[in-house]
Amino acid sequence: MQEGLDLMPQIRDKARELLTSGAVDCVIGYERASDGLTARPLFAYEPNDVDKLIFDQTCAHNLARFLVNKRDSTVAIVAKPCDSRAINLLLAEKQIQRERVYVIGVVCPGIVEATWGQIGDKLQARCQLCREHTPLVYDFLVGEPPAEEPPAEPYHDVAEMEAKSAAEKHSFWAEQFARCIRCYACRQACPGCYCTECFAEQLDPLWVGIRIAPMENEVWHIIRAFHLAGRCIACNECERVCPVNIPLSLLNRKLEKDVLELFGFRSGLSAEAVPPLATFKKEERLGMSE
Amino acid sequence: MIEGYQPKIIGFLCNWCGYAGADLAGTSRITYPANIRVIRVPCSGRVDPLLVLKSFQRGADGVLIAGCHPGECHYVEGNYYTRRRFALFHPFLEYLGIEKERFRVEWVSASEGKKFSKLVSSFTEELAKLGPRREA
Q1: Angle at A253 between CA A248 and CA A258, to 5 degrees
Q2: Are B88 and A174 within 8 A, CB to CB?
Q3: From the centroid of its chain, how far is CA A94?
Q4: Looking at CA atoms only, how far is residue B134 from chain A in angstroms?
Q5: CA B48, CA B65: separation in Å to the nearest integer?
């Protein structure tokens, strides 16, 4: 649990330096939540605020989520490797400007399962599958990058799901989606969901009706996942914030797997990458007839 | 097979190829099953996965998208996007419990009235064998 604590002084010093010199207007980082155990986002505007900054294995939030809202000011952000992929995604999609973001990258020890007032000792599922422990984009790196990244075969649960019959899959997802209360926390937590008008809020056509019905939940979840196809950076914040524990990563990672197989693409690895559904190759067949 | 069951197919046909192909089938008196309900779209690239999903939700047994052959899009590259989008969406539908036989993306040119007719016939047969979809 204490892993990562030694990174705190470095983060604080850097943040203080940036705020004092006026290089940035705000530092987005983590502070201790009021339960005294877990972490919550901190927006530090004054050099005095930086002593609240922390970094340890409870810092789950993907802070890149806030960059789009802050695009008119210059900010520094504390970024884990998964968050750094989100920064690359936002850069690639021209949502933020590189020169207005100062990235304090942290080498990540993995984030632990935690709920309010309670910290587990087990790493989150996504962290167990993580392939990048060093941020992919940073201006200042905190921590020692590991010598070797573990090879990963992270799709066994997706493959299990694929192997089920159509009827089994149908009833599984019907059960999952039935629990949804459509609070849209999954969307609010997602760094890739930045549309000013989400399809779920459009009234004409009314894609997602306001009535409480399985059908409306289903269309929300399927299209939400598909809008992130080839864009999702697997921070899994959507699943973490879900109040009814819908296994959203099972949807996201199915698309991630297929994107990798079809297009050989993983999102957020570079700031220049074009999302696979926004481009094409004339000669590809993709399993379709001529 | 269920006696008397007629599958419902929603067909999104591109104005320049799929739709013209269907039209040619009509004017050439080539018959095809009336199970298909045609929706004309300007380009197969216009078809949002939302439209496909909504069709299934509102009772379609099968969804067909027919566009120009790759390289022959009226808008030059619209159908290349269609191809990528649905190459990805198709297995996703299957993953969610909609049998992969229920969804097809086909390339039908304006001169392929016969191909269109055969396509709708074989699709209808296949869906009839599969039977109606489970209620959502």
Answers
A1: 140
A2: no
A3: 17
A4: 8
A5: 11
Nearest CA to CA, how far is B97 from chain A (Å)? 4
Do A20 and A112 lie in one domain? The reply is yes
Location of structure tokens 């949804």: A180
Which of A222, A277, A290 lies at the smallest CB-CB distance from B53?
A222
* pTM for the model: 0.94
Burial class of residue B102, CB neighbours in 10 A (0-12, 13-18, 19+)? buried
How does A79-114 read in b/e, with b if 16+ C-beta sit within 10 Å? bbbbbbbbbbbbbbbeebeeeebbbbbbbbbbbbbb
Torsion sign over Cα A10, A12, A15, A18: negative
Question: Are both A180 and A117 inside the same structural domain?
Answer: no
Is A284 domain-assigned?
no
Give the domain range for residue A88: 5-142
Among A114, A142, A170, where does a domain finish? Answer: A142
A114 part of a folded domain: yes
Q: Among A119, A142, A165, where does a domain finish?
A: A142
* A114, HSE (Cβ side, Cα atoms, 13 Å): 21
User: Each residue of A160-174: pLDDT tens digit?
Assistant: 999 999 999 999 999
Supply the CATH number for residue B92's domain.
3.40.50
Tokens matching residue B114: 């016969």
Would you say residue A219 lies in a domain? yes
Q: Domain for residue B1, yes or no?
A: no
DSSP code, position A289: -
User: Are A168 and A111 contained in the same domain?
Assistant: no
Q: Answer yes or no: is pLDDT of A74 > 60.
A: yes
Domain membership of residue B122 (yes or no) is: yes
Residues of A in contact with B43 (CB under 8 A): none
pLDDT tens-digit map of A15-73: 999 999 999 999 999 999 999 999 999 999 999 999 999 999 999 999 999 999 999 99
Give chain B's domain count. 1
Which among A199, A229, A282 is the nearest to B71, CB-wise? A282
Is some CB atom of chain A closer than 8 A to the CB atom of B65?
A: no
Residue type, A289: S
Residue A1 confidence (pLDDT): 45
Tell me the residues of chain B between 7 and 46 that have a Cβ less than 8 Å away from chain A: none
CB contact under 8 A, A166 and B83: no
Domain count, chain A: 2
* Amino acid identity at A39: A
